[in-house]
UniProtKB/TrEMBL annotation:
The chain crosses the membrane at residues 31-51, 57-75. This is YcxB family protein. The lineage of its organism: Bacteria, Bacillati, Bacillota, Clostridia, Lachnospirales. Keywords: Membrane, Transmembrane, Transmembrane helix. It comes from Dorea formicigenerans.
Length: 183
């Protein structure tokens, strides 16, 4: 079966950091679990401070930890993008690239390192839960055992073009009740 679209790309810093707003909207599980806990601890110490008549400095105990937590909360997407960039750089080395072939009913991701096929996976369009479009990427969010984001560079098509691809992927995603967002 012939693919309808084929893209070959090697990602750089700009590509990974362009995904930060998408990662910010999908925080990691740890932050989702610990956010209410940190808020409750901060409220507990503020109530203790109020019960003491606002005279002591017990409210200072959780303040640095809470501030550090919220700074980390906003820095976490940058750290995830940076770790993905490091892993990709280590995996692809200097001669690696990623090829994504889009067929009528599925798409296939192939990773090459040193001109050797090292990884291949085929996914159904039914796994796509959302598509986010940035200035240079189409980011496909897949729901498998957890949520994965597969970036597709707009200017990396070797078969087909980005304008036809936009209409194609939009039709496939709407058919599967996925959302299409533009950043």
């Amino acid at each position: 079966m012939e693919p309808l679209f084929v893209t070959e790309c090697k990602f750089d810093n700009k590509s990974y950091y362009e995904m930060v707003p998408i990662l910010r909207k999908k925080p990691s599980r740890n932050f989702l679990i610990f956010t209410p806990v940190i808020i409750l601890i901060m409220i507990f110490f503020l109530v203790l401070w109020g019960m003491s008549g606002f005279r002591d400095f017990s409210w200072l105990i959780p303040l640095p930890a809470g501030c550090l937590y919220f700074v980390c909360f906003f820095m976490e997407p940058w750290l995830r993008a940076r770790s993905a960039l490091k892993a990709g750089t280590k995996f692809f080395k200097e001669t690696g690239f990623e090829r994504i072939s889009f067929y009528k009913d599925s798409f296939q991701v192939q990773v090459y390192s040193n001109d050797q096929l090292t990884f291949t996976a085929t996914y159904s369009y039914a796994n796509i839960i959302s598509i986010t479009i940035t200035s240079s990427l189409y980011c496909l969010s897949l729901k498998l055992d957890r949520t994965y984001i597969i970036p597709v560079m707009k200017k990396s098509f070797v078969f087909g073009n980005q304008f036809d691809f936009y209409n194609f992927i939009k039709d496939k995603s709407i058919f599967n009740n996925a959302t299409v967002k533009q950043l």
